[in-house]
Amino acid sequence: MTTPSSILSFGSDHGGLALRRGLIDALRAKGYAVLDRGTETEASCDYPDYAHAVGADVTAGRARFGILVCTTGIGISIAANKLPGIRAALVQSADAAGLSRRHNDANVLCFGAKYVDLPLALACVEAFLSAEFEGGRHCRRVDKMEPAR
């Protein structure tokens, strides 16, 4: 049975379409459950729409983690980080992906398709998914990133 704690939500704009599709295919083949929030064509579209859809899946508990892709990864990570409860990390190495979970409790992983190919992105996703938040001194820092309530 698939539970939200084992589901990944994906989104990309037109610039991240091919990498997103490659990641989804590879991760489904490994047994991961996926919510695919689009886009479906190479027609120009707006990355914040996909950041918002994936962020909503994560904050509502429909997915444990999100993965977002645009051309550079910059715009989509900025858009995701505007959402309360989202800690999106733009990464270009498996080490950074793992550290984003262990130290920053990241819940969304972002890629720039211009800079990261499919094998590297898969290595980053595997490092991200296999890492756990370490807590401790990192809790204080992560708590400071959340808006005041």
Tell me what the structure shows.
It is a single chain. By secondary structure, the protein is α/β, with parallel strands linked by helices. Helix 4 links the parallel strand 4 and strand 5. The mean pLDDT is 93. The longest helix is centred in the N-terminal third of the chain and has 13 residues, at 17-29. It has helices at 17-29, 47-59, 74-81, 94-102, 118-130, 137-145, and strands spanning 7-12, 33-36, 65-70, 88-90, 108-112. It has one domain (4-145): Ribose 5-phosphate Isomerase B, Chain: A. Helix 2 (47-59) packs across helix 3. A five-stranded parallel beta sheet has the order 2-1-3-5-4, sandwiched between helices. It is built from six helices and five strands, in the order βαβαβαβαβαα.
CATH superfamily: Sugar-phosphate isomerase, RpiB/LacA/LacB
According to DSSP, the number of beta strands is: 5
Low-confidence stretches: none
* Number of H/I helices: 6
Q: Give the biggest sheet.
A: 5 strands, parallel
- The first-to-last residue Cα distance is 35 Å
In percent terms, what proportion of residues is strand?
Answer: 15-25%
Q: According to CATH, what is the class?
A: Alpha Beta
**Largest sheet, order of strands side by side?**
2-1-3-5-4
Coarse structural class = alpha/beta
- Percent range for helical residues? 40-55%
Question: If you compute it from the alpha carbons, what radius of gyration comes out, rounded to the nearest whole angstrom?
Answer: 14 Å
Named CATH topology? Ribose 5-phosphate Isomerase B, Chain: A
Please tell me the CATH architecture by its name.
3-Layer(aba) Sandwich
Mean pLDDT: 93
